[in-house]
Design goal:
Shape: globular
Number of helices: 11
Largest sheet: 8 strands, mixed
Number of strands: 12
Order of helices and strands: EEEHEEHEHHHHEHEHEEHHEEH
Bound molecules: adenosine-5'-triphosphate
Strand order of the largest sheet: 6-7-8-3-9-10-12-11
Distance between the termini: 31 Å
Helix content: 25-40%
Radius of gyration: 21 Å
Strand content: 15-25%
């Protein structure tokens, strides 16, 4: 069955002006999002994950702009799609933001009003985005609270954000996002501020809501470990570029880009007993300068000569899997897979 495309991004290029200099944050990324899937975007801090996705909501800061490419949203009533990069007026963004594409941030407090009860905040979203009256909105608020796993909704309705724990606040934020009735939910590091058991619960909740509301989810995280149980596909970003994309199985069991190997090797589960946790040596390149060759080459112990000279194209590994590395060129020397991949294949990591 043909999957419905919700978002089609082509060669997206995003820049910022900072003290008279240009920072090239997103360097020509193309990717599609399909109905009902969870697409994880992973990469170190600064790789451009947030900037890339915030551009779908018109939320780039004032010194940033889309310098090229396109992002077409196909989830709305208009079959021919909406070119998001062409939207200029705030009044047009309001039609998209929340209602078509909603976003959940890392810190729930930034999205909640501390002076209003959580019930009234969820209700406000319902009244704004759904054609229902007050009584129905109250009923629906209770349902959403139950949907996100908040017990005793009647009591919780009247409480303020400070009366909730961090995990419960994130559940409220998710309820508000769902109440806007979006087609796409972008979750930007939704569990980073939470402890590990709560993280797992929030991820389970997102999985459940994706099914119930037929949402397409973009999950942004710097932690590949988080995506193993929830993502259908994984895109790996490095220095403003997408270096590899594949199904979750392909990225974990058959990763091809040395940066993906490094990310996998730095998972806490990958550490051997008694050895230090592996951290990727070096730092990402400056995004102010133009990048020659493969941006990861200076940090890649297996880099080839050509990596420092010419940017690799994408090489297709399967119809769903491609990676931007010269190692996939038929002329490249065969390099052994890192031990972490062997370990994952033997079932020793998850
Ligand atoms: N308003 C801005 N002005 C200048 N540079 C910016 C601005 N916003 C983001 N950047 C830069 O764009 C690059 C990408 O940032 P982005 O926040 O998307 O990274 P990220 O991968 O989401 O990292 P993190 O996980 O830390 O949020 C970084 O180098 C960042 O410093």
């Amino acid at each position: 069955m043909e999957r419905k495309k919700m978002l089609e991004v082509k060669d997206l290029d995003i820049r910022f002006e900072l003290r008279g200099k240009i920072l090239h944050a997103v360097r020509g990324i193309s990717l599609d999002l399909y109905k009902g899937e969870v697409l994880a975007i992973v990469g170190e801090s600064g790789s451009g994950k947030s900037v890339f996705t915030r551009s779908f909501l018109g939320l780039l800061e004032k010194n940033g702009w889309v310098a090229g490419g396109s992002a077409v949203y196909y989830g709305g009533n208009d079959e021919s799609g909406v070119e998001l990069t062409a939207i200029e007026r705030e009044k047009d963004w309001i039609k998209i933001r929340g209602h078509e594409i909603a976003m959940i941030m890392q810190d729930p407090m930034t999205s909640l009003n501390p002076l209003r009860t959580i019930g009234s905040q969820i209700m406000e979203a319902i009244l704004l985005h759904q054609k229902v009256g007050r009584m129905d909105a109250i009923k629906k608020t209770m349902e959403y609270l139950e949907d996100v796993g908040i017990e005793e909704p009647e009591k919780r309705f009247e409480q303020y954000p400070h009366e909730f724990s961090g995990g419960m606040r994130q559940r409220v934020v998710i309820a508000i996002a769902i109440a806007c009735n979006p087609r796409i939910l972008i979750c930007d590091e939704p569990t980073t501020a939470l402890d590990v058991t709560i993280q797992a619960q929030i991820l389970d909740l997102l999985k459940e809501l994706r099914r119930k509301y037929k949402l397409s989810v973009i999950l942004i995280t710097h932690d590949l470990g988080v995506v193993a149980n929830i993502a259908d596909r994984v895109a790996v970003m490095y220095a403003g570029d997408m270096v590899e994309i594949g199904t979750c199985e392909e990225i974990f069991y058959d990763p091809r880009h040395p940066y993906t190997w490094a990310l996998l090797s730095s998972l806490p589960q990958a550490g051997q007993k008694g050895t230090e946790l592996f951290s990727i040596p070096g730092t990402p390149p400056s995004l102010f300068a133009s990048i020659q060759g493969d941006a990861f080459a200076p940090r890649n112990p297996r880099a080839l000569k050509i990596d420092f000279v010419k940017c690799p194209p994408y090489f297709e590994v399967s119809p769903t899997h491609k990676a931007k590395t010269w190692l996939l060129d038929p002329r490249a020397p065969k390099v052994p897979l890192p031990p972490v991949v062997e370990k994952i294949r033997k079932g020793g990591l998850f």
